[in-house]
Each structure stands twice: as structure tokens, then as C-alpha cells.
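Subgroup meeting minutes
Present: P.N., E.W., G.H.
Scribe: E.W.

1. P.N. recapped why we're keeping a running log of single-chain structure predictions: easier to compare across weeks, and new members can see raw inputs and outputs side by side.
2. G.H. added today's entry (346 aa).
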Amino acid sequence: MTISTDRRPPPESRGSDFARLSRKITEAGLLARRPGYYALRITVVAAFYAGGWIAFVALGDTWWTLTVAAVMAVVFGQVALVAHDVAHRQVFRRRRPSEVSGRIAGAGIGMGYGWWQDKHTRHHANPNHEDLDPDVEPDVLVWSPEQARAATGLPRLIGRRQAFLFFPLLTLEGFNLHVASGRALANRSLKHRTLDGILLFAHCAVYLSAVFWVLPPCMALAFIAVHQGLFGLYLGSLFAPNHKGMPILTGEDRPDFLRRQVLTSRNVNGGWFTDLALGGLNHQIEHHLFPSMPSPNLRKARGLVRRHCEELNVDYLETGLIASYRQALTSLHAAGAPLRQARARA
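Output recorded in log:
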């Protein structure tokens, strides 16, 4: 699926479309920092993080620690969302405090900050572009029929039933976060890779030592499986509604900035709980247009962005959370069709 160009305005007017929207957003004060909000949010998340580990040690050798594992999976997801906002300079205006706090948050969940920042920056520049967005590379899943036809190895094996396997596979996303962060350390072009390596291995050493010190081996393995599995499921579920099932760009198909961000993104409607659970990423269109906008301001920007898109006849998609997952799974099933057809012919 590619983005249709039928509804674009004439070329001479495109360059000013985002600039006019940006002026509206700036005049509304929506790019201003929210130090009070982030001070409270970071304090609460840090308190739950520390409290979770204190409860883990206090409970000790009991299967009730699996309840702590489930709670800590959500807490780890919230730490990841804080790291995301910090990396986008939503919290601090300057680079150094953003990098320091981002690395601290990343170390808390076993994520290589430099690797993730590089990957996420490339995603923001070219969302859903088959050749340029690392999030739609055919690593395990295939995202388009073209990728399915060229697939070999694991993507070819999984691709036939990937829509049914999607959520079960997300339980491995927490482990994949650690493995991918470790593998990235071999890349000599990665900035501060020594520091990232020290923080990553320190996290793994402290995490495993604590779990196996407090719990007997079988219970420790169960704790890790529940914690990391639910963390991966939560983390993957945060990002799945944003772009999965939206148009895939290929080759030279690169619309102007505003259309590239809006037409490949999907908003998820809901109230304060949706904002809390998804960390503001449910306002994905606004986030992609203004990555440095503090997450509590994204909901306020929604009306301005939507009206601007309506004026330009640019499709602005917003749906419910369950509907977003349904659209993502439908797209995954359609992408794997060539693999099912090839097997049927065999």
C-alpha cells in the first residue's frame, strides 16, 4: 500500500503547509516546557520503580513475587516512555541533561540509549518507509507483500501466520531490547558505545544477581519470564497502534514533511487513562509533527492539527485502541498473503 497523491495541494503551496501549522502551535504556547509535570511524573515513576524492587526483596522466596513481576513490567514500560520523552528533548531543552537522564532511564530497564536513539531518529525522519525506517525492516515479520515475496529464513517461516503470532511474539520484545542493545555495541560508529556497554552490562549483572539471590532457581526463572514477557507485551502494545497498518512508502515515494508524518501515523482516541497508559503516544500524529512537544500538550494540539489537515484535505486518522490493533493485524495478514499462496501452490 502506498500513499495516494490525489489529494495533495499544488506543489507551489506545499512548502508553507507545515510552516503555517507550526506558527499556530507556537502561538498557542504548546511547545513550551512543562517542568512541573515532568518533575511529578519522573518522581512517581521512580518511586514505583524503587518500591517495586523493595517489595520484591521484602516478599522474598514466595510465588507472590510473580505479582511484583507483573507490576514491574508496567513500571519498566513507564520508564521507557520517560526515556522516550527525554530523548526527544521534551523534558530538557539542552542536549547534555537530556542524554544524561536518558542514559540513566535506559540503564534502569536494560536498554542501550545510543542504539535506541539512533534507530528512533531514523524512524521519525522516514516513518513507514520500506527502505529507510528500521521499524519496518523484515527482521522477523514482513510488512508488505513485496517484503513477503523476497523473504527468506525466519520472516518467510513466520510471515504466513504472522497476524496470529504477533501478540505472542511481543512477549519476546523485552528480551530483544536487551539483545539488540548488546549487538549494537559492535558498531564502531555508535557514539559513547563504551559507556552504553558499561551501563547495559551493569543492569544485567545487578538484575540477574538480585533475582537469583532472592529467589531459588526455578522461581527466579519464572520471575524473569513473567517480568520480561509482560514488559515486552506492554512495550510492543504501546507502539503497535501508531504506524502498523498505515501506508508503506517505497523508493522515491517521499511526500513533504507534513504529509509524510500525518498519512503514515494513526491517533488513538480516549481519555486520561489512555494518555497515561500509552504515555501520550496515542497522539502519534501530533508527536511526529512536533517531536519536542511535551506529551501533556499533545492532546491540546490535536484540535489545531486536525483542523489544519481538514483545510488541506489531508487524511487525519483517529480510531479506538482495539480498532487500531485490528487494523494492524489485518495489514499483517494481508502482507503475508504471498507466502500463503506460495505454500498452497507447492
